[in-house]
């Protein structure tokens, strides 16, 4: 399905070498100041051309087709498109015969009976993430009370950012590529965000994140490290929650199920 | 939202110490043989009482309320309930004042204005996963062409299963708990499963998996290890896809974007 | 799909002669006083046994399986079931060979490959509306600010209620049945209820209403009569909206598209 | 919500006087021949300029932004836009102070806190139905096995089409408008279309139809007339279903619930 979300619904359309990449966001609050300039910063972080990214350079200039009037969101569905310009005229039909491993070429050709747009991966291209970035810009404006910070933490297994350029150059020289890890910290979320049973914050976020081509894993909090911790290490103490006997250090806690246990009467 | 899925929709209801835990599955194919015995094996794998699990013992006998007629699914919504029997009469209201860290007590109390059912975690109890298991039994019957195998791979950081009993006993003696890692292998899935843009197999599965209390991370394929691989290591070669120069070993491959590259004319 | 709604989601399950008819409502506000007695009045209006209704008599005693704790809704999915008692042991399999016209027998048999529950219409029985009534009781509690009043306006083409008993008896004597028209007036709805583009109040209500077996039409406001009115007759004047020249009577109005038309400067 | 549908999902965007009116259709089968010319016939039926329609004339030339490659649908989300050209520069802000009765001006202004696009009704304009027509063209191509025929049956209460021009001219001369009734006949639908409990064909269709501004009622089959019929008149006999005693005429039938009734052994 090309739509995700319940209150804030994001619908993606477009192909890598078609006329446009686009996104329609429904559920936008009215009255939010929004102009094409608001997209610049986040789009530039996604932008191609930097070391280790695709060499395809595009202007990526957003065009607002609906949902904004006199510089403010109207509350109506908000559509943003990006025109594809740097589209090459190669014989992409060859992808049908020689599908690229690690890409959707083979699967898409089968799934759509040979009618999928093969140019640059069509709808499976990483270029579609332009729509995610645009929707994220709007989402962040609606969630003005929260701070979002996503940073690259690891490239090719290296956590020291100073070593990344060399590693990337070496991989590129071999016609190869490197993986990476991104960490995103969000502060200021309201207590109780997410909805049981299925729509935990973790569940909803991971559903969306795996739409980004190439993502292979996602962790929350301590992530897989939690599997190697004891419960007493992993547990989050409430700030005001003190263990009465003072036997435990901060960040550690006995975690009885019994509310009457003497340890729990902070 | 208590419902997940599009063609196969799973709705969960019930509380840990309420009358029942239940699940309604919509989109079940008609004509599948189904009896309460079909749930036994998977329910027993989830069952409490084993070393390292909750000591709460329940019969967990499924009761089919709808969707089955004369031993076959009818295609109508299929509801299965499990009666809660081993419910304790403790003063769970104390959880409101002394919420357990690492549980939903605090958040639920705030989110529902003090009206949530606090007994045993209410709707946030791990006991709700009974409904997931029941839905999974039905799903596996519908996907008769595939094989599902989920196994415990790691307990408390130990991959050697023979060391688990000792580690669990030691943790239990300390009133503590251990984390774990489960691996699930599915074979026989049809090519092209999942739907772009948002509903990749990874996205949809992870959405569901994070509903299981305590899950902190999920990986597919090589998972986070992929971030430490070069593209040439991570890539899946098509079985028939041979690199023409024979320069690369099996499992490794140059991955050009150029379909006319001589290397790619298998 | 057995679920309808976005914020307030109603999932129906059960068959006419299965163990239960049930409904799960998700999105219920926490803290609403609710007991089985709250369902009595509306259930009794639906109840069989009155002149012109099905002779099948049931206790229709609601049983709350989840979502209520200490007399208040918890905010968790709320499931109500009704046990089927008056189930007859006839050879309903004969319906497969001799499907009743005007019923789902024929279609269901084909659609579900002969696996549908044929007893009393199975999931297509009017008895499933028990779930709608139960959900409605909860909905009305949440919409305490509004007044709902549904009344029977017409039976067998007769608007004079005093003539209905005779007409019903005459039809029954012939082994026949009569149609009817129900009018529902809702007062106190907030301005702006409904969501564009698709989820107008009319669209969402009609979607739900046609789930009631036998409904053949729905109208809002003047309904089909509006098609026979001129726009000037059909239009709703705003109470404070006066035509400046006093040329029009109350309830009629010129309706220019031009906001600068002198008539429109109230 | 701006999206409707489950397998075939239609998302509308745009405003009457914004840059475009658009629609994205997800769930389109791949391999269907589609060009802008395919939209011409149905768009021309909707087109303004005819007697009794809005005088606003637009080219209404569809532009396909995604989902079509080399003249065939790809299976990817298919977006069609229509540029708005004939937009007037009037002071539509006056609509905020003097909202037009029978329009969304007043409600939208309140609902969106004065940020809605007031020009020509914004997202509430009848012009948005361009998106419905475009989606309908695609839907009909997918349902090649069915025939759709929608015709105007009544204008201003007149069923004789020859009298319509005069009635329309008379109303227009008075600055007034007339209502109408449209009948749509669909042939060739597969048996069992629609899904219980909520998604009957009637429910799903009516949900969509009420998105068309001005629609006040919808009927299926005999519609409200059914309320004035006896069951024996309203009932649809199966073609091969003969009443054994020959006592009933074609189209009429006793409708017992008892499958063993002698009358029912066709």
What's the quick description here?
Chain A is of the alpha+beta class.
Main attributes?
Chorismate synthase, AroC fold; 2 domains; 10 strands; globular; alpha+beta; 5-stranded antiparallel sheet; two-stranded antiparallel ribbon; homotetramer
Instruction: Quote the beta fraction of chain A.
Output: 15-25%
Distance between the termini of chain A: 49 Å
Q: Detail the poorly predicted runs of chain A.
A: 241-266
CATH class designation of the largest domain in chain A: Alpha Beta
The CATH topology label of the largest domain in chain A is: Chorismate synthase, AroC fold
Integer-rounded radius of gyration of chain A: 23 Å
Report on the structure:
The structure is a homotetramer of 266-residue chains. With 266 residues, chain A is α+β, with helices and mostly antiparallel strands. Chain A has 2 domains: 1-144, Chorismate synthase, AroC fold (4-Layer Sandwich), CATH 3.60.150; 224-266, no CATH class. Helices cover 21% and strands 19% of the residues of chain A. Chain A is built from 7 helices and 10 strands. Chain A has helices spanning 40-46, 94-97, 105-111, 129-142, 164-173, 201-209, 231-234, and strands at residues 3-4, 9-14, 20-26, 62-66, 68-69, 72-73, 78-83, 147-155, 180-187, 217-219. In chain A, strands 1-2-3-7-4 form a 5-stranded antiparallel β-sheet, covered by helices on one side. In chain A, a hairpin with a 2-residue loop joins strand 5 and strand 6 (72-73). Chains A and B meet through strand 1, helix 3, helix 6, strand 10 and helix 7 of A and strand 1, helix 3, helix 6, strand 10 and helix 7 of B.
